[in-house]
Specification:
The protein is mainly beta and 43 residues long. The chain is 0% helix and 28% strand. Bound molecules: zinc ion.
């Protein structure tokens, strides 16, 4: 599973692939990889 975050509203979710339409703002948002938000990321 990967973590994704909506650039429009900041909505975060876990999925293999980001959804085409954001469940929170119901637009075709751009989702960014949010994996490095977890503390174990190391960076
Ligand atoms: Zn959104």
């Amino acid at each position: 599973m990967n973590r994704w975050r909506c650039l429009e509203c900041g909505y975060a979710l876990e999925a293999e692939l980001p959804p085409e339409e954001c469940p929170a703002c119901r637009k075709k948002c751009q989702f960014v990889d949010n994996n490095c938000y977890i503390p174990d990321c190391g960076q």
